[in-house]
## 1
Amino acid sequence: MDRIRMTTPLVEMDGDEMTRIIWQLVKDKLIEPHVDLKSDYYDLGLRHRDETDDQVTVDAAEATKRYGVAVKCATITPNATRVEEYGLKQMWKSPNGTIRALLDGTVFRTPIVVDGIQPVVRCWKRPITIARHAYGDVYKNAELRVPGPGTAELVFHGDDGQELRAQIQRFEGPGVVQGMHNLDASIESFARSCFEYALSRREDLWFATKDTISKTYDHRFKDIFAELFEADYRERFEEAGIEYFYTLIDDAVARVMRSEGGFIWACKNYDGDVMSDMLSSAFGSLAMMTSVLVSPHGYYEYEAAHGTVQRHYYKYLKGEPTSTNSVATVFAWSGALRKRGELDGNEGLVRFSDALEKATLGTVASGEMTGDLARITTLPNPKTLTTEGFIDAIATRLDADLA
Ligand code: NAP
Ligand code: MG
């Protein structure tokens, strides 16, 4: 059988530990038998990042700007223990942070829904995607413990000599005080990424803040979204048959719980942090969550939402059997290949990506799965497979579907 040809390379970022093992298996057994894979390969494994003084991470991000689509394996973000374990020259920064800073993106996380793994919320029929703004607010704040009576003020000194002031509180006793900020430019690129992603998924976009209470700060978010929507997106949304919907954050939370799913939920930084953990656990498992970084310039970087699964890797190194879930890694590949196919008008590649996802979900739905899913499935008598056994089962099904 002829393998599917690619016209443009995919930027491939290899990673660490158990996910690096899975990465190779997915390529060897699921992709390369069917696709003549063209990839621009970067080894982001910790050893190679250290050897290149982390230049390889920057190079991979720059390549993503050239080609537009990347797929990334989970990577170790070093801490003091890792510096010792790998004998690192220094405690390199999180590759995801470096890449995000260079591509200026928003991260979209979507649960992978499959028969046999039921969401805790019974009315959820389709996935809900969280888009989290990853800049500013409480994550980049300044805060003080107020020792006793006094006055706390916000003061802004403009470079042009202008001064703005607002009283926060007249304290009659001890307390706490906090200052935080955001930037119009960051909010705009967040909004643009959300509108673009909603169009590419053909799903409604919801956004919510607390603008009734925060009449300047949160209101600025609401206004930027509204202005950008009117200027650049209203017509395109109408053509695509999708909606932009703004509401208060508490109303949004209530509506999410009553919804059938199938939309994108844009969240301010803190809301996104909290709500994405709620959604991923309510939908089943972190290993059943896709993650894609979308830049406002239209670059896409696909990955799994989980880490390198270190505990399983140490078992693997000892020669013990493992049962690590590769679904999110497979979906990182299928997401990237599909996007590459769409951009290049390569229908064969798009169809292959669909087939790969279908075979993966079909394997789980037929009762063959890894241990993490076997523990929570509603299917009777699930069969628990090893890391490799599960990928083999997908391969068998995929080969049959494509034959
Ligand atoms: P983790 O790799 O997400 O794993 C935490 C635990 O979750 C595992 O021990 C396992 O539970 C379960 N789990 C996660 N993914 C699984 C999968 N695919 N299949 C089955 N079970 C899975 O987080 P971590 O162990 O805290 O972090 C390990 C390394 O990953 C760290 O060095 C961190 O820096 C890095 N990390 C990278 C990324 C990224 O690149 N995007 C994200 C997060 C963390 P059991 O042990 O109970 O089976
Ligand atoms: Mg969190």
## 2
Amino acid sequence: EISACLVGSEMCIRDRKYICHVLLNLNQHPMDFKLTEEHLMIRDAARDFAKNELLPGVIERDEKQEFPTEQVKKMGELGFLGMMVSPEYGGGGMDTVSYVLAMEEISKIDASCSVIVSVNNSLVCWGLETYGNEEQKKKYLTKLATGESIGAFCLSEPEAGSDATSQRTTAIDKGDHYILNGTKNWITNGNSADYYLVIAQTDREKKHKGINAFIVEKGMEGFEVGPKEQKLGIRGSDTHTLNFNDVKVPKENRIGEDGFGFKFAMKTLSGGRIGIAAQALGIASGAYELARDYSKIRKAFGTEICNHQAIAFKLADMHTQISAARHLVMKAAWDKDQGNNYDMSGAMAKLYASQVAMDTTVEAVQVHGGNGYVKEYHVERLMRDAKITQIYEGTSEIQKIVISRGLLKD
Ligand code: CAA
């Protein structure tokens, strides 16, 4: 119909384009920026929960490095720990857009809680649901999706951080089981988890193709939770070293085919990075809102400081950068929901949103002046929390490797 309408006409290219646009889009909105009612409802539920349940005590938990046990229990009950998992396994069956909306709201108030949400949803539940077998899903995923159990993702080692293929932890094949030996570092939910997805080298000759992923249960003989890290930020989440000394892991706990472990880790991390990008976005928007509100009540030189251009321009810059970051985060989430490749869009979202989180939180402290440097105003904590978003689930430099390789591969 469109061709028939255009054939032989003397129309200029702009008019042809317009007619195509009208005919093709009568019933479609290919660039629709509107969130659905369901998305708005989830965002508002997360916002209310964060204000009512996470804000009280957030300063004290940060100061004491106290794990938010009660808050995590409530997040599990409300469905925040298995948002994208199919209802068949106890999850919410929601899309990635819903997940990043909730991540942003939780991160505005308490980034220690949001990293727990992110690791459990993106790295553990998603990895198990996508690559685990039916028995593994029934046994582990159903508990992880409801928050009855918590999960951890164990890839990093003392000598294998960014260089993730250099795994030193070994998993020796003994027929019906594997024997695990080695050390994992900087593990989120290190002590609070019940189940651990552990990446280990089975056949060094095969390099990354000889790596496997296993489900390890807390309490398995030879598995020890080591010391808790004393951290700059996200101090409510527990980060530990883990030691594996001849841990016997049944073969049925291996995820996927023999040698699938590295791809499992990479694919899982690609989605994880969208969650961390949303966390960075939330930290930035939380700091911006505090700075904006403070600037409307704090007076200097006879007027509220928002009336000084020095402050108003800071707010304008923050808001612009946060909006740009939000578009990248939403695009990556949308790519994942549409079944598009999201390696690059997730990496771009994380790279940019984490930089915006750093820049915005530093400026939010500046807007608060001396008050920004003390705990009760929250922005100094957000500034400390922001830094990790440039480091975990792939440093900013690793995101640039992923992006540039994606650009140059064809
Ligand atoms: N999806 C599927 N496969 C992938 C992939 C992806 N996104 N990325 C890489 N691969 C595959 C490659 O295709 C290749 O397989 P083939 O040989 O079969 O083609 C294999 O993996 C090795 O890839 P590379 O040759 O690209 O490997 P590399 O050594 O150059 O490293 C890297 C690639 C991107 C730098 C990777 O090592 C990396 O992502 N490093 C960062 C690790 C990281 O993010 N750690 C975070 C720790 S977890 C954490 O922080 C959680 C927490 O607690 C909060």
